[in-house]
Amino acid sequence: MTAIATRTVExxxxxxxxxxxxxxxxxxxxxxxxxxxxxxxxxxxxxxxRANALAELGYVALAFDLHGGxxxxxxxxxxxxxxPLLADPxxxxxxxxxxxxxxxxxxxxxxxxxxxxxxxxxxxxxxELGRDGxxxxxxxxxxxxxTGRPGEAAxxxxxxxxxxxxxxxxxPPAQRNAFTAxxxxxxxxxxxxxxxxxxxAFHHPPVDHPTVPGVGYxxxxxxxxxxxxxxxxxxxxxxxxxxxA
Length: 245
What we know:
This protein is an alpha/beta fold. It has helices spanning about 45-55, 75-85, 90-105, 120-130, 175-185, 220-235, 240-245, and strands spanning about 5-15, 15-25, 30-35, 60-65, 110-120, 140, 160-165, 190-195. The chain contains seven helices and eight strands.
């Protein structure tokens, strides 16, 4: 069986040169594609491995960059960049559109069949693409219960799945309620999975640097959240039609 192929891709966004990770499935045919966004710290081997895993499932996957090739392991530096970004939907959309353009121009990717999957800040970018009316087949997020500008959620054209830890102090119940109220009022096909006992970034393996308070790895729920993401893609963006099944 032919192995997947990977390569780095450089592209401009947010005044920076972004360095993404593209993973291609075996074969030469066109496949459905996934835009994969990282936590606020930035693109790391965690997201690269996830993109590779999606390629093994048959998807073209692009793990996009947030910080111009940098990984922000200092919580103060990360917050100093991410908080203004999260407060600026147009900047998030610019980052998302730049990565989406790279994915759409990849010859193996079907530009009409793309989903956005993201974690934390990367998930917020995916949601903003939806609020901008981008033609996506699905949006899946973990730790990204962000709300947008009034009324713009009505432009989301696909199912939205969101996951959050029940003990996440960064995405507390009030934030969950605001997010689900926005989705419901907009008539979005939405789902929310609350993982009992989990903190913020529960899906991310432990790191060797300080983190913001409220972060903690939960290996069982990390596996469950990944399965939920894969199930969302299987429902909304199946690869079987490409494989002749």
